[in-house]
Structure formats: structure tokens, C-alpha cells
Design goal:
There is one protein chain. This protein is of the alpha+beta class. It has 6 helices and 13 strands. The protein is globular, with a radius of gyration of 18 Å. The two termini are 30 Å apart. Bound molecules: fe (ii) ion. Fe (ii) ion binds at residues 154, 156, 161, 218, 223.
Length: 262
């Protein structure tokens, strides 16, 4: 794994050492302050390109294209809101997904299953343990966004999201986010409406570099990936870990996300 990950800079393989402790502390501090941390240069030079070369043929021929109009909640309605409330404004998301079962033996899957990474992530998220997912499709996905496509405004279902950027678009494809737009106590529908109208001065844009590992706390921080421009698709791996072992999606969830049950 030392040929794939920069373990000199990010010593995941030396759990309990002072440098491992320091990295965990810095990551926890960044999560508290910014709602995310980024390990830039997590992949050795050339590895992101290698991962893209492995996935591209599958992406080009067998990825699941998912196009939908949705609101920021990914729900048909919100009981306390009128259907025409501006917080329910519809946006469009288009993505191309390659599932874990389509890329066995790939660099991306080796990184996903690398036990020191799973242990490091658990420590940064304050969990006793994390486990890889058992679901053959959902455990790790690679998403591509092409010219004119975007992952539009949403809140995440899970507390943390772990991604690894493999290829950046020529323009666009940036992470735009509004930290703590809502809280568990306050849905802040007027603030949501303001953001969707492009009138929130606290929205920030982050341009990530390929090879960066990002951990993001997206449950109450609204975020999107801006519309991709240019010929090069944005390609990003999304890793799913759970506190309990053996987690599977239902057939309905698999069909909903990937267009097939198995
Ligand atoms: Fe998200």
C-alpha cells in the first residue's frame, strides 16, 4: 500500500505513534472548525491517473446514469411546508455510477478495504470501530459528472461522507457548501430558500485536487458539486463505512440508486 498512499506524509500504518496521533488530532480539529478535513496528496503521484484508467472503460460502457429532479431534502414533500415554498425549489442532479462489484481488484477497492484507513477514519470520527459495508454494490462507488452535469444541493443522510477525488473537471465540479445551514433543532427553511436563490453570503466554494481524501460532515451543511464544464469528467470515489459489520442495502435501495437489485 505504500506505493499507492503517501504513508510518509500520512502515517496511517503507524497507529498509536506520535505522528499518527498528531494526524488524528489535526483531523478532528478541522472537522470541528470547518466541518471537514482534507488529506491533499493522499495518493502518490500517478495513482489517481492509474485508478481512472482502470475505471474508465467500465464507466464508459456499464455505468448507471441517474438523472432526477429533486429538492434539497430528496423528499417529495415536507409536512410543515406548502408545496410552493421556496425551500422546496427543484434542482437537477445527473451522475454516472460504477459500483464496487464492477471493479474487483482495482486500486480504488484496495484503498477502500485497507484496514489502517478504516481504523484512522474511525478515530477521526470519534467511533470505537468502523466496518466496510457488505453490500456488493454499495460498499464503494465511483461517480462521474460530465459537461453540463452536477450533483445538486442536498443534505447527506449519513453523519460523515468519505470521498477520494480521482479526476477533476477542467472547470466547475467544485464543492460548494454552506456550513451549519440548519441544526437538529432548527430547520431554517428561510435560510434554505435564500441559499437556493443564490443569496447566501456564507456559501463557500472549495476546489479540490485529484488525490485528495475528504471527510465531510454533511448532515446539516448544505452542499453541491457545481456544474462541470469542459471535456474531462469529474471522477470521485465514495466510500461507505458503518459502525456495525455486515450492512447491506435492501433490494429497493439498490434499484433506486443503481437501477438493479444485484
Ligand atoms: Fe453529499
Amino acid at each position: 500500500m505504500e506505493d499507492i498512499l503517501d504513508l510518509d506524509r500520512y502515517p496511517l500504518d503507524r497507529e498509536g505513534s506520535p505522528e499518527w496521533d498528531r494526524l488524528v488530532e489535526q483531523s478532528i480539529a478541522a472537522l470541528a472548525a470547518d466541518g471537514m478535513f482534507n488529506l491533499e496528496g493522499f495518493l502518490r503521484p500517478g495513482i489517481a491517473e492509474q485508478a481512472v484508467r482502470e475505471i474508465k472503460p467500465v464507466m464508459d460502457t456499464r455505468s448507471h446514469v441517474h438523472k432526477r429532479l429533486h429538492n434539497i431534502y430528496f423528499k417529495p414533500s415536507i409536512p410543515e411546508l406548502a408545496p410552493d415554498h421556496p425551500a422546496l425549489r427543484k434542482v437537477e442532479t445527473i451522475s454516472h455510477t460504477v459500483c464496487a462489484d464492477q471493479i474487483p481488484g482495482s486500486t480504488v477497492m484496495a484503498i477502500y478495504e485497507y484496514e489502517p484507513l478504516v481504523r484512522f477514519l474511525a478515530a477521526t470520527m470519534g467511533k470505537a470501530r468502523l466496518h466496510v459495508m457488505q453490500d456488493p454494490l454499495a460498499r464503494a462507488n465511483v461517480m462521474a459528472y460530465r459537461a453540463g452535469e452536477a450533483l445538486n444541493w442536498h443534505f447527506d443522510r449519513s453523519e460523515f461522507t468519505t470521498t477520494l477525488l480521482l479526476q477533476q473537471a477542467e472547470r466547475g465540479g467544485d464543492l460548494e457548501y454552506r456550513t451549519d445551514l440548519r441544526s437538529d433543532e432548527d430547520a431554517n427553511y428561510d435560510g434554505v430558500a435564500r441559499l437556493l436563490e443564490g443569496r447566501d453570503p456564507e456559501a463557500r466554494v472549495l476546489r479540490m485536487k485529484p488525490g485528495t481524501l475528504n471527510v465531510f460532515r454533511g448532515k446539516n451543511t448544505a452542499h453541491r458539486v457545481t456544474t462541470v464544464e469542459g471535456d474531462r469528467e469529474r471522477m470521485i470515489a465514495v466510500f461507505s463505512y458503518y459502525e456495525k459489520p455486515g450492512v447491506m442495502f435492501s433490494d429497493e435501495e439498490r434499484v433506486g440508486f443503481y437501477g438493479r437489485a444485484a
